[in-house]
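EI: anyone free to look at a 202-residue chain?
SC: sure, send it
EI:
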Amino acid sequence: LQPQGPAEARAFVNAFLKSSMPKMKDEAIQDILTRKAVVLEHYCKKQKKQKRKKTKGFTAKQRREMRLFEIEPEQQRYAIFLPLHELWKQYIRDLCHGLKPDTQPHMVQSKLLKADLHGAIVTVTKSKCPSYVGITGIILQEFKHVFKIITKEDKLKVVPKLNNVFSLEIDGFVSYIYGSKFQLRASERSARKFKLKGTIDL
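SC: here you go
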């Protein structure tokens, strides 16, 4: 195609407008062509972005009133939660890429500090309150300041983290949890940096 000159382009536009608007007079068409500004009658309105409403969850008081975290007495049986413990052991093995005899203990410890402990079997080895020492069971619930543990005697124990030391064993690896330095929710531990060295007292 060869480029058209100004005269040919003007003739083409006039012919196109006449064929497109046969009822319009030549003067009106020329008036449209000579206008420097054209006001459009129809325009798109800008759509306002709707702000998403944040869904409000239940408050701590409402959760207590609804008893969302309470375990019914008929469900407080050790045997019911043994499959949960088996799942937890597999979860830890996968997390540590297999627990082998040559696995470094500090690597296992660092993984356990950030791992979810629901389903783990723990024992209170040291405590400022002698009545807590020796309690062993499966962790059913972990809160910021306490563990809820089901024992082999089908008793639900609420053990505070403060002033208690817990031992945890899996595949021959024994780790100790110092509750006083562990007062975090399970969801907060994954982003927390722990110091593996240093002296820790009750």
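EI: Residues 77 and 154 are 5 Å apart (CA to CA).
SC: 👍
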